[in-house]
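Please produce the structure of this protein holding iron/sulfur cluster.
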Amino acid sequence: MKLSRYTQIVEYEGKILVFNLLNDKRAVCIDPTDLKMIERLRQGESIDPAKLSKGVQTFCVDENIDERKVCLGLLQSAYWDKRQLNFIVLPTMDCMFRCKYCYENKDHEAIDENFMDDFAEAIRTYHLRNRLKNLSIEWYGGEPLMVYEKIVDFTKNLNHFCETENIEHTYSMTTNGYLLSFDKAKTLIEMGIRKFQITVDGVKETHDKLRPHKNGNGTWNTIIENLLALKNSTLDFHVMIRVNYDTEVVERISEFYKFVKDNFDDRFTVFHHVISKWGGANDEEMEVIDPSTSQYVDTLLVEEAVDHGLKPDMNFYFTKFGGRVCYANRPYFYILSLDRKLRKCTFTDEKYDAFNVVGYLRAGEFEIDEKKLLNFVMPDYEKMNEKGCYDCQILPICHGLSCALRRAKNQVIDCVEEKINVKDNIIQEYKYYLSLKK
Ligand code: SF4
Ligand code: SF4
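Below is the modeled complex.
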């Protein structure tokens, strides 16, 4: 056996951490014989499996296997399953916040009465043709809770359908949290919308500056009150607190993470993302962190979260198999908005539509233009070769597929190598799990 090309080693406080990015295995290697074997394998030696412990074999592969093919094949075969259908739905583009970095047009187009019915009908039609096994729906916007009743009615009916037809169904919601009163949250959670992504940009002062209400007032107090009401319940949910950061947010992040740790429990995790000029109206005047330093800042923030006993779960997910592949690369994953277009990327700006729109919701059916879909989702193997993806150690994370929009529109592969510090992330993940044992 040879060492898997995706096995890496990192030292932390005198311990050897071994991890593999293809099978997502991680281990602390303490046995002296195992350590010796790993060292020999790292030198390129091939060793009889009988001489290797089961643990070491986990990080090895048969000599005849080209893992690059395995890596690319595993992802694609998981993706090309019509029985798994996923949506991000934008049931409104309206929002009561005026976030400084927002790139969305806040039109006030009301949801038309037939939209949800057509959507439900199209799911039923799809199921008749393809026998659905899993269905996932993420409510997004705009602010989805502005059409709370519509979502509740739709979900009730869909639950009934999925239960009758034995279809696994998972729901989630990205909301600003402002309208998420306890009663609403309870109703949503009880009907299966249990995962929420809610953005809180640090302490009150930094958040209120970045995410004011359209009336000019701050929004932090209301969001935190809503989250505390949830925390004080016994409900089963997961809230990922997303922190979009600029320099001021970073300066006070320690204070914020202490607040989160002191006031919430492990149903709440954190995730941070650097603020960029995302194409919104305030882009010119916004001061953003230099993208070339964001990997460094990101690493510090992961460490800060872990040191406060918080789980930066999305950041940990980034070092898992396919963790940096955007969902837009998945063929049966669509963004559905009120204009009834089925897009791939959440950037709904019309300037991308020539590439981004791959179908329509029409008369209770999803009409997909297969050529447009393939043009959007297929890997560009030639560009990957030019980029060096086939020799890249983090191919299992990225697959040369990170941003599908840039690949489809500009024939550019958006390389994430510079954007992620894999070894440091693995150390922080280990530190986090150690802290759970204390
Ligand atoms: S795009 Fe960059 S990070 Fe991704 S596989 Fe290719 S070389 Fe590696
Ligand atoms: S811009 Fe790229 S990475 Fe972002 S959602 Fe669209 S396809 Fe995905």
